[in-house]
Amino acid sequence: MQIDKLTLKDVATTNRQYLETIFALGDGHMGVRDSVPFTGNQQATLPVMLINGYYATNPITYGESAYGYAKNHQTIISLTSPRYLDFATEKTSSEIPGDWDMTVDDAVLDFDTGVLTEKFQIVTSDHHHFELVVKSMIALDNSHQLFLNYELTSLDYTGTLRFTRPIIHDVTATTADADDPRVAQRQSGLTNQFIPADRQQQIEWQTLVASTHQQITQRDWLTSFPTGFEVYGDHAGFHGSGTIEVQTTLSWSFTRQISEINQALPDTITSWTNDIVDRNRQILTNFWQQSQVQISDQKLQAGIQYNLFQLFQSAGRNGLTNIAAKGITGPGYEGHYFWDTEMYMLPFFIYTQPQIAKQLLHYRFSILPQARKRARSLGVTRGALYAWRTINGEEASAYFPAGTAQYHINADIAHTVKLYFDVTNDQNFLREQGAAVVLETARFWLQFGSWQQRDGRSQFCLYKVTGPDEYTALVDNNYYTNRMAKENMAFAAWLLENHYIDGDADEQAQFTKASTNMYLPYDQEQQVTAQDDNSPKMPVWPFATTAATQYPLLLHYHPLMIYRHRVNKQADTLLAEMLFPEDQSLEQLRRDYEYYEPITTHDSSLSRSIFSILASRLDDRDKAFSYYMDTSLMDLVDLQGNAKDGLHEANLGGSWLGLTYGFAGMYVADGKLHITNHLPTQITHLSYRLRFRGRVMEVQLQQGCTKVQIITGRPLTMVVDGQQREIALESVANSKSS
Amino acid sequence: MQIDKLTLKDVATTNRQYLETIFALGDGHMGVRDSVPFTGNQQATLPVMLINGYYATNPITYGESAYGYAKNHQTIISLTSPRYLDFATEKTSSEIPGDWDMTVDDAVLDFDTGVLTEKFQIVTSDHHHFELVVKSMIALDNSHQLFLNYELTSLDYTGTLRFTRPIIHDVTATTADADDPRVAQRQSGLTNQFIPADRQQQIEWQTLVASTHQQITQRDWLTSFPTGFEVYGDHAGFHGSGTIEVQTTLSWSFTRQISEINQALPDTITSWTNDIVDRNRQILTNFWQQSQVQISDQKLQAGIQYNLFQLFQSAGRNGLTNIAAKGITGPGYEGHYFWDTEMYMLPFFIYTQPQIAKQLLHYRFSILPQARKRARSLGVTRGALYAWRTINGEEASAYFPAGTAQYHINADIAHTVKLYFDVTNDQNFLREQGAAVVLETARFWLQFGSWQQRDGRSQFCLYKVTGPDEYTALVDNNYYTNRMAKENMAFAAWLLENHYIDGDADEQAQFTKASTNMYLPYDQEQQVTAQDDNSPKMPVWPFATTAATQYPLLLHYHPLMIYRHRVNKQADTLLAEMLFPEDQSLEQLRRDYEYYEPITTHDSSLSRSIFSILASRLDDRDKAFSYYMDTSLMDLVDLQGNAKDGLHEANLGGSWLGLTYGFAGMYVADGKLHITNHLPTQITHLSYRLRFRGRVMEVQLQQGCTKVQIITGRPLTMVVDGQQREIALESVANSKSS
Q: Which residues form the Glycoside hydrolase family 65 N-terminal domain (chains A, B) (predicted)?
């Protein structure tokens, strides 16, 4: 029941900017939004090409500055879309048909080849009719080539057509809503050099700030065209209908603090061939085999495949780039990398595409020097603090209460190093890269925290931090942060004990002591796990008098109004409980869930997937299904209303978590894999593939029946529906669940 | 033992920028720094003239903006100094003697006339020697005239001198340390019109933003000069030595939201005459009679007189201006008005110059519309919230955690309305202006706060506020804020009950209930009054490893490092205890003092005066004296190191509080005046004048002896050294204190 494509019928609207996001193409590095193939009056659209990690830097201006503030913005650069091919009839005066009537008939994104095919109906300003079919494809073999095939058919026009292929030289400022922090606000100054040649143009883009040494070379080549056609010359045209093909290739070099990225142009110029389609098909077949998910609900099947396809298109693979909050599908959040990668997206890669997971984690290793430096700026003399939002490793958050104060990113990264190791058993990575990350982040906590008397004994406390929930800031002992730091330090002690990295016994003992005695706030009165020291005492947000139009709250209320109320943007304490299922009883989890659910707005796209997973764990299967529907289809139904700015990449990952961590109750504890069947009644069948310590496995859930199969690899002892099982090759752990 | 002048021997250094501040002249509206009388290479100085309330506005740029943030900077405008009179010998090519060697021989500021006399020794670039005596005086009769008398004596030069009087037309940006939030950072764009005329030039300054309708007219007139001398023409000069006199007069019009300020130019042009000196002498004699302080220590006598003289020079008197954090002695803190006026400066005016106090409080009444609007931006639908820092009434703080979150300013203003009423019994003011201020600020608290179970009963709590101590931000139940809001609401209830303002009985009951049940945090374990809910649990700042050069902390540590430690910039909880002596026992106060003193850096100039007062109350007289020395002489010894940017006006007021609230233990409770003798052993005698409900009184303290005398007015029942006394006209309450 694999779905092989997404069509226009599967999406929320035909608003162009929305479609640009939804049908965006990428290879993890080069991202091209699906803008219309004409220039003109398109201010409402974002006709851009993005290169993962290619950014401009500008000094941050503060209303009131202070010591240690982040110094520079890093803003992913919006390059001109390479999709433009303007044409004009004899009667129309300009090649830029901004006022032409144009409708999209169909759009088909093929998950097996990565080919996007669109059909447009065009009425020119002199009332002629044309049909235009555009096929687009990015080669997925890491050559960074975009292929475009334009097939123009005249329906009622005979005469000469003039064409031009405008790669616009001015890269102007993105128009943006100045008060919405989720939209990228600063465009770079760029210099470029334009080298026209026969049927070819080459553009070299360079960022203005020399110190970043970033350069892009874009080669744009006409590979196939009707006789007599000359695009880069004098716009000579042809009669009636015809086909034009273009290849745009990118190469780049970025210098990072510790290394260089050099991606050369391919030697040959290729036109659209079946060979390239076949190469893509092979790569994607591999991908779908490793990451296969089958689910009985057709909408959800389409949703999860779309989501995984887009995750695959967004993930950097060269070890020095990561996955931005909106991938390379839009310039939102300035193209920054956040904790989203580790906590929402990496599990999918770790369990099914470990080679990509390793590259993404290598990025964190590569920016350790910047993280060490950042810790010093915060007054901590040992260890490292990762930037809350960054491309080059330096902090780029201009609002520290919901930026740098989210120290938890340190432990999030360490947690994911541990998950990667638990699932892959990649000893080399842990020894050579992971251990240093874990040790340095743990060292930060050790100095950052302090010992205080709590509940009659000395416990380790963390003051003035911000947890994942950005509707609460600068609190004491955020449960999530404390719980994650506890794991971070425990893992560091384990690494020292097992000689994955050098360190002294005293430090190891300190890690163990702080981890063991980490304070975890609990509200005795209400018997709930407390988000922080004071949260249970605060007044609840006035939900009754808040109109639906006032959400998301962050766009309608002063932060001070939000901070002084008990209201959550997203799962916070519950996220920690999701990650550590063995920390609390189901009764406790239920009380916590019932306490936090009514005060959570889900104004963040990182929320619903977690609520779905925990509803599964609590066996509230209808609720789990309902939250999962919103997760899986978030961008396809435009639930948050802002998919036009780019996909919610964390939620793409969250939709895989909802199936595997939620419906299949999957987790690893003490190195042991757990699977529990929580399939909602609306779903009759769910199966998915994963890799675990060298094995390829498949989990199959049906109502009342759980099967786990090893496809390749050695036998495994694991826990299925609460019972320990020994699973051998080609045997099936088959459990009748209630 | 009155001191009648300040001389160069009384001050810390001869650094020019420092002297510019210390010898600044003002009449509450027009402020002129004591810059050298030549233009030239003076980048290290601030040769400016400031007009109280005359500001430029520019949009605030945020690194990351959000809903409800303050929109515009308001920056007091630095006008060109009118003190310049450049001259040149025949051999020197330019009138601008930037490279001339110039030393200041003496400077004398006369407290009885406001006349500043300075003597400079000059060596020109062609090695000639001159002596220049400059006398400066601002008429204190509200006519805003500056008189300058230049007496130039040639010591070894005969020949023609060329003169020019440069009023520079470009008002350029103030150079400022970008990371120091205490320094004004933005200069205005100004337009000006320059109208030269015979022996006169007239300049009209207008701010660029038309909506503020602010205009200054500056008339600059040569009133006396040697024959043949023509300054505004072709720089014709005269031989040898001579005297030149200049009068600079200002007029202005500002539009504020509810009213206009119009200050016309005087009809006549006057030269420096003894009449004007005599008029000033009369005004200042009056001032010193009303505000007389005599203290046996000569240094402290000079200190307090200097401080009061400068307070008098800085206070706006037209009801629509206030006292800026640096008065009109420098552009620091952008010329903004803070809570400093109410809590540190107004008591002096209330007790000794009530007509000025009333004008200063009228300013707050005049900006009530802006405060109402600000409350709406914060999500509070009734009442008013005063801007943390402002000139025109709108919030100008670009960092809300240490700006808008200092809600306590609301209660500070209400407190001072009450103090003014308690001391003056001005019924009209309370009915017509004060009651509305108190009611609207109280209404804000009522909706802002919330009821929570604390210590087994429902109490009124205030979440996510910042108290006076800016090294702690966004905390729950800041003791100071809660205690002040408690008084604010109790006073509002009293005003309603006594029909000073209309309101309903239900609201009155709510004020009483919230006030009575206000939660005041207390740490049972350590038996200390807690700064806020969590403060006692936080780790103490690492004082042992903090070098002396690392203070003030705000310039050397990230706010997050500061916020997560128990460290105070200034008195916070202790300030509340200072204001309400009857709240706690002396034993409790002593514990609190001993708890907070070691963690207070006094990085704020608002701190030491409070520590002195409380040391007096605790009868730790040596400590009280020591803190008082630092308070009284703060700018004269340049204790904070930044007097060059302007005087610490709050501390000027604090030095009066140290004497009266401290050494004389003065306070009002339940309408009754209290005096207690805490005179330090270093001081043999202290006496001061005050006004209390229509009476003129004098307090005289000696070691072991307290006298309170009514100079004019009806008998008074008050408390002297703990005993209730009835004091009649010309009788003396004479107490032998221990």
A: 16-213
Lowest mean pLDDT among A86-95, A135-144, B434-443: A86-95
pLDDT greater than 60 at residue A86: yes
Domain regions of chain A by residue span: 24-283, 303-331+338-663
Residue type, A324: A
Any CB–CB contact under 8 A between B547 and chain A? no
User: Does the pLDDT value for residue B140 go beyond 60?
Assistant: yes
- Greater confidence (B737 vs B146) lies with B146
Amino acid at B212: T
Residues 99-158 of B with CB under 8 A from A: none
Percentage helix, strand, coil, to 5, in chain B?
35, 25, 40
Q: Is residue B470 flagged as an active site residue?
A: yes
* DSSP letter (8 states) at residue A175: P
Q: How far is CA B153 from the centre of its chain?
A: 39
- Alpha-carbon distance B706 to B720, whole Å? 8
The answer, for A377 touching chain B at a CB cutoff of 8 Å, is yes
Structural contact between residues A291 and A308, judged by C-beta atoms closer than 8 angstroms: yes
Which tens digit of pLDDT belongs to each residue from A351-394? Answer: 999 999 999 999 999 999 999 999 999 999 999 999 999 999 99
- The pLDDT of residue A253 is 73
Alpha-helix residue ranges (DSSP H) falling in B256-382: 274-290, 298-314, 340, 346-352, 354-366, 368-377
- Strands annotated E in A256-286: 260-263
Q: Are B284 and B114 in contact (CB under 8 A)?
A: yes
* Mean pLDDT for the stretch of residues B249-264: 71
The angle, 0 to 180 degrees and rounded to 10, between the axes of the packed helices A368-377 and A435-448 is: 10
In chain A, positions 262-301, which contact chain B (CB-CB < 8 Å)? none
Q: Which residues of A touch B65 (CB under 8 A)?
A: 178-179, 181
Q: How far apart are CA A416 and CA B182, in angstroms?
A: 43
SS3 (DSSP) at A637: coil
Name which residue leads in pLDDT, B653 or A197: B653
B444-467 pLDDT, tens digit each: 999 999 999 999 999 999 999 999
B62/B649 Cα distance (integer angstroms): 29
Distance from C-alpha of A221 to C-alpha of A229, rounded to nearest angstrom: 13
> Check: CATH 2.70.98.40 for A24-283?
yes
Q: What is the spatial distance between Cα B716 and Cα B693, in angstroms, rounded to a whole number?
A: 9
A504 annotated to a ligand binding site: no
**Amino acid making up residue A37:** P
Q: Could B539 and A181 be called an inter-chain contact, meaning their C-beta atoms sit closer than 8 Å? A: no
Nearest residue of chain B to residue A70 (CA atoms) = B63
Q: What is residue B267's predicted lDDT score, i.e. its pLDDT?
A: 75
- The 3-state DSSP class for residue A435 equals helix
Residue of B nearest to A476 (CA): B534
Please state which CATH class domain A303-331+338-663 belongs to.
Answer: mainly alpha
Q: Which of B169, B180, B552 is nearest to B334 (CA)?
A: B180
Nearest CA in chain B to A74: B63
Q: Please give the model's pTM, rounded to 2 decimal places.
A: 0.93
| Domain B28-287 class, CATH top level | mainly beta
Kindly provide the ipTM of the predicted complex, given to two decimals.
0.91
Residue B118 CB coordination number (10 Å): 21
B533 contacts on A by Cβ (under 8 Å): 533-534, 537
Which of A333, A558, A567 would you mutate first to test chain B, the one with the most B CBs within 10 A? A558
B70 and chain A in contact, CB less than 8 A: yes
User: What is the H or E stretch that residue B559 is in?
Assistant: helix B559-563
pLDDT bin (cut points 50, 70, 90) of residue A636 is very high
Query: A210-226 burial, b for 16+ CB within 10 Å, e for fewer?
Result: eebebbbbbbbbbbebb
What per-residue confidence (pLDDT) applies to A263? Answer: 75
Q: What is the pLDDT of residues B55-101, one digit of tens each?
A: 888 899 998 999 999 999 999 988 888 888 877 787 766 555 666 78
